[in-house]
Structures are given as structure tokens and as C-alpha cells.
Amino acid sequence: MDKPFRIALLLNANKAYDRQIIEGVCEYLHASTCDWDIFLEDDFITRLDTFNPWEGDGVIADYESPQIAEILDAYDIPIVGVGGSYLNEEEHPNVPYVVSDDRSLVEFAFRHLQVKGLEKMAFYGLPDDSWKKWAKARELAFNDIIKTEGYDSYVYLGHEATPQTWRHDMEQLAEWIQKLPKPVGIISVCDSRARHLLQICEKLGIIVPNEVSIIGIDNDEIARCLSRVSLSSVGQNCKQIGYQSAKILHRLLDSTEFNKNSLLKITKFLIQPTKVFERQSTDFRSLNDPYVIQAIHYISHNAYKKIRVDQVLENVGISRTNLEVRFRNILGHSIHQEIYNAKLKRACNLLTATSLPLTEISDMCGYTSLQYMYNVFKKNLSRTPKEYREGMR
Asked: Which of 151, 169, 201, 239 could form an S-S bond across to 24 if both were Cys, CB 3.0 to 4.6 Å?
């Protein structure tokens, strides 16, 4: 059995990034022989004023915080940092550093939009004076990729969100979105900023994803739940960051001759993204017919209300024969089939993203009964809704 150690986790579990890192640390503890007494504030918020001095044996810390980095610099114990992959190597801390590959995160998002057929790309980031250096790394990665691929660059950084400036900030963001060429794909520096984009598009009546396709980074459940349109996002593989951090710290604690100066030659450990979690916000189809675009937008937002074809026609304002011909020529199926598909897609999203009971999902998708939803899934996916949920998870 390993020697017992007291380990502090200087992470804030109110952030999806840190929560998943903690989960990764836990996975390593369960898989190894570590005997660690973990210190973490009861409300999972790091408080530096009560932490220092720390008389424990090791630390895993979020080095995105300048205050944490400054305090830990005085400690001569094994420390492993997590954070963003800064472009300037000199900015990395002098401890083993496990980080997300920010360039790969942006490239995953870019390739996803590119494959969709989008020919215009934009980026919504954080202001230059932000201490979140990963945001600047992602912005620069976007500019480099865009230049290499031969696209025009549209970048908006905006301001840090505050209650006092929120209204003005959103008005400026709205002006930027309205001026962008359409259709356009926007990569957001993180999911919380992507939510701003979704809200503005809904307010302005901009059709997502046919006019503006939006993808975030983090795959944050909270940001996803706060938006009517489900957000596509790149997963950071934060659990792997936590797992590798714990593994490195374990090795350092077992070292018989630990010396902080010996760590200076240890480089950062880059963790690759998991994948793009594709949802409604990037379900882009290259369409040129404004009537079909308007009809699809109406259907995607109202299919669950048990709408019929007549209501779609009333919203678009042309005859059924005319719109049916356009649907057949462009999409290869009828208006009714589009409503049918929209309900099924919504059901699949809810089964994957939530733990709601099947009866509630059936009702939320506009199915006449749970049995009818079962029949739809068996016919189209050869699985029951329950089997689909279990398979996706």
C-alpha cells in the first residue's frame, strides 16, 4: 500500500472544466494504489486567503489563476498545474503542466463547419485585457487557420460580461452579427460566449443554423440547457487532464529525491480534444431557397407543438403545391416528412442530453403517445428509445 499523502485540489467545481478534471483525478485514485487524503473546500470553491499556508504533501491546481500561481511559487512540494496551452512557452509555470491543446480545439471546430459547406467563418472571443490567456491562444489559432485555409477573417472580442454593461454589450454584439456575410459559421471561444450568440440570433430573427451556424468549446451542460437551440461544441477531454495530473503527481510523490528545481526541465503535457458533439446549432444545409429556409426554421422550432402542414404554409405564405415542389427538388422529401424528422431529431437530442422520463420526452416532442414514439424509433432507428439512450451514453 502507498504511503498516505495529504493532497489539495485548487480547482473551482462551479466551472465545467474544473469539475471534469476532478472526475479524472477520482478515476485515477480508483484505478491506482494511491492513499490520498484530498482537501477540497466544502462548497468546492478555492479560497486562497484560507489555503495559505498549506502543510500538505502535494497540490493539483488551476494555473489559469495568476493568484494561485503566485502563491504556489513559494512552495517546495510536488505540484502539478492544469490550464491552457499558451502560445508563449515562457508563460508556462515551472511545474509539470497538463493542458488542453487549444489549437486542436479550434481546428476541430473549424473542420466541423468546413465539412458542412460553410464558406464564411467568424470568431467570437474575449477582450485582449482578459487574464484568460487560453482565450487569446484560441483567437490566434483561429487567425492562423483561417489565413492558411484562405478564408476572410471576421473576429469580434467584445467585453467581459457584467450586469452593468450587459445590455450595451449585447447591442454591440448584435451589430456585429448583423454585418456578417451570410451564411456564416461562428466559432465561439467557449460555450458561455456561444450562448450570447444564440440569444442574439433568436432576438433578431436570424435563422440558426441556416444563416448563422454556431459552435462552442467546452461541451458545458449548463450553457447547453440555457439555450432553446441545442449547441454544438468541442469536448476538451478534461477527465484525461485530471487523470494524467494525478498520475504525474503520484510519480512525484513516490520520488525518493524530490527537488523542485529538477522539475524545471519537465515540459507541458498536451491533451487532445475528444470530439465535436454535433447538435442543432450547426445542423447546416446549404440552401438557397428563402421559402424552404423559412419553412425549415419554423418547423424546427414548432414541430413539437403538433403543427400540421397548413400551419407551415401559413407562416411561409405560398401555396402547398409550390412549397411541396421546392421541398422535393431541394430536400428530396415532403413538408410532412420534415415535420416527422424534426420530431425524431428532438427526441434523440433529449434522450442523449437529459435524463427525463420517456413519457415526458414523448409529450415534449409532440407525439400522440409513448407507444407511437416507440414505433417511430423502431421503424427509423431499429431501436427503442430506451435502447437509443443507453447506446448513445
From this structure: 239
What is the total count of domains within the chain? 3
In terms of domains, do 218 and 244 share one?
Answer: no
68 lies in the same domain as 140: no
Residue with cell 512557452: 89
Domain around 267: 4-100+237-275
Tell me the pLDDT tens digit for each residue of 86-100.
Answer: 666 677 778 899 989
Q: What is the mean pLDDT of residues 149-177?
A: 92
pTM (two decimals):
0.80
Q: What is the pLDDT of residues 257-270, one digit of tens each?
A: 555 555 545 578 89
Whether residues 53 and 116 share a domain: the answer is: no
Per-residue model confidence as pLDDT tens digits over 49-82: 777 788 889 999 988 888 888 888 888 899 999 9
Q: Is the pLDDT of residue 124 over 90?
A: yes
Domain containing 257 — which CATH number? 3.40.50.2300
